[in-house]
């Protein structure tokens, strides 16, 4: 018996709603074992943290797609990712995510895939796909005249059972299904053609077979997070320099000045500031065998993996300081908090707490909420840089 729960269990198993039990069972975020069928107290539950990371990564990728395509395409993308969750056991699985460097990359890959027909069966029927794409060359009823069955096979026009009694090529239900298949395929093509590479098309089975390169997409997300931190610390021009170094590799300062359209004085100061914090590094290239520093030229480069590790350490420090800050702020109002948490006060706050006590409690709860919100944001960065 397989079930899923996210977080701490605070109520009996049978108290969970039926739809929650089904949802978590499908996503596999935790497992449970029934020792006896009669005594619910013997139910043993274990959180599957690796599967939780997979589910959290799905939500992150869906939000990432919303930035470029909007809500409709992002919901379709999220449906596809949740289908792939059933075939993935953890985010960093060398066996599952390995891509063989062979001539036929499609056959050499062991990444899971889904077809357009499978996405159609799992997609919410109420999702309006046509509103987010341009009109194609279909007829007024949305049917292009090419019916494709669940296996992606187009039947021959000579078969009589492909026509209804009015002489149309397919029944109205088949027309609507084929129209929705075409709409899904258009959305998937938009995802595949994007420079970020949200999906890859690897075959034509089921009107298109698709897979997600999780490693490359995660690196893209990590790069975007690193660039946002650099932009916040050093400015947008510094982020532009980093993007140029990522794209071109090692460059001289003059090439950076021309590529980013900045003055020599500004470029030198900006590169020096980032070098002090380890964002960019230089490589000395001697002009002759004497290797004199005055006759050498220097190439600037950016190492995203090393900077991501530095950012992860900084995030750990920020989370530690936030937790310490919460404890300090709580200590300032500890007497009021202890008074409000007394059993005889809970539920009778108006009778036991003064106006000043209520004001202090309200201020503390607002401060705690702000600090915890910032702590959760830092935790999202840790999940992206470490777990995904």
Approximately how much helix is present in the residues?
A: 40-55%
How many domains? The number is 4
Per DSSP E runs of 2 or more residues, the count of β-strands stands at 7
User: What's the pLDDT, averaged over the residues?
Assistant: 79
* Series of H and E elements: HEEHHHEHHEEHHHHEEHHHH
The value of Rg in angstroms is 28 Å
Mind describing the biggest β-sheet? 3 strands, antiparallel
Number of H/I helices? 14
N-end to C-end Cα span: 27 Å
Helices and strands in order:
Layout: H1 18-27, E1 30-34, E2 43-47, H2 49-69, H3 71-85, H4 105-108, E3 113-115, H5 116-122, H6 172-193, E4 200-203, E5 209-211, H7 214-234, H8 236-248, H9 253-260, H10 264-276, E6 281-285, E7 297-301, H11 304-332, H12 334-340, H13 349-352, H14 355-387
Antiparallel strand pairs: 1-2, 3-5, 4-5, 6-7
Report on this model:
This protein is mainly alpha-helical. It folds into 4 domains: 35 residues, no CATH class; 160 residues, no CATH class; 86 residues, Winged helix-like DNA-binding domain superfamily/Winged helix DNA-binding domain (Arc Repressor Mutant, subunit A, Orthogonal Bundle), CATH 1.10.10; 81 residues. The protein contains 14 helices and 7 strands. It has a 3-stranded antiparallel beta sheet. A two-stranded antiparallel sheet has the order 1-2. It has a two-stranded antiparallel sheet with strand order 6-7. It starts with 17 loop residues before the first helix and ends with a helix.
